[in-house]
Amino acid sequence: MSTILIVDDDTASCRTLQLHFRSQGHETVIGHSVDEGLRRCERAAPDLIVLDIRMPGRSGLDGLPDFKKCCPRSGIIMITAFHDMESTIQAMQRGADDYIHKPIDIDELDSTVARILATSGASSGEVQRVGERDGTPPSMVGRSRRMKEVFKTIGMVADSPVTVLITGESGTGKELVARAIHRSGSRAAGPFVAVNCAALVETLLESELFGHEKGAFTGAVSSQPGKFALARGGTIFLDEIGETSPAIQAKLLRVLQEKEFTPLGAKRAEHTDARIIAATNLNIEESVRQGSFREDLYYRLQVVNIHLPPLRERKEDLLDLVQTLLARINREIQCNISGLTMEVMECFQRYDWPGNVRELENVLMKSAALCAGSTITMDLLPPALRRLDRAPGQASDRPDWQLSLEEVEAMHVLRVLNACSWHKGRACEILGVSRPRLRRMIQHYALEPPSGSGF
Ligand SMILES: Nc1ncnc2c1ncn2[C@@H]1O[C@H](COP(=O)(O)OP(=O)(O)OP(=O)(O)O)[C@@H](O)[C@H]1O
Ligand SMILES: [Mg+2]
What we know:
It contains 19 helices and 17 strands.
């Protein structure tokens, strides 16, 4: 996952690019002019800059040297609507990494981006600039009992050096928890270094983690420190640790036991004081039983285990999450979405979110980008969610006008309750009824929260 800065005066093409990059898991930042782009660049320290050439005011070509100066490590792709050899040459001379034409061919864009991110080394666990990109990393929300437990544990372990193993399905917020532990602890001023253990083959991962000496293997032209060395005084986050090979597991065990590691090709071991946080979305106990994950390493890692429940088991968090994510999205794609219709919120309550918070974020992002007004409506949802828009209590497929008043009342009360996560006080306010009356209606119509929602 990388951060990509898009600098283009054309709002529509910014959004298209942004959606595309987001769907691939990248973070995006936007600037509509060279100057705005430079300001954002300073704060976000992007891995890649996509820079339009023709813009009112300073052209992308003029701005290029400033972007290089501001972020010498970022890759730069120039974009222009004109097939103009001269600007191509100039762009390459001024330090662009590549050049593509409008209308953008997505395949060409993808292969260019992948190549540049791979060669700039930005794609796999760079030293993360915690606190530098737009202030602090996003904070976590959730009012469910289980998330409150999670927050409490974060607070308890933040200041101690114990190793923490974070488990949970994909998209439940494991990385966010790791960052929160780092940020709230005594090492907050030190580096937070993330390594995705599943993204690299064994030898590369080994050199990534522990570093290598010059000549340790073909292509090792200079010696390089590993992530354990870079994380001194801070935190190393070993993501997807369940995917590591036996050889890497053995070396990690040594770091955990002796705080020591040996860079590839080195004669002497090095010391590290990095605090270790690991995460996995696999059932690691099962891997231990099956023998694919070392038991001794497992016990060393999970001195403290933080398990993140799937979103479908804590739907009372939905409302807070939607609000927080929408605020983030508004900022990020510069739109102004104020909320969802009740139908949409109901569908959210009914859906079981296999991709968890990340899926919720993607759904909101896509709908927000397509939204002409300020409220997200049913028609903007993906089909899988739209299908859930059957009126509750409406067993048959009778049209609305054939319903009795009682049926309409039952349906409406249920809709309001679901939309407020069964927060009865809020439902009373919306419905304009007293609490006893609401209780009677719930009983009378035998209304129940959606299954598995936990409220
Ligand atoms: N409680 C929360 N409050 C606010 N945002 C959240 C919360 N949980 C997750 N998110 C957001 O959801 C997205 C996914 O979170 P994150 O990357 O931490 O998940 P993950 O468990 O590491 O997923 P994966 O296993 O797919 O790597 C992020 O954008 C994160 O900011
Ligand atoms: Mg993750």
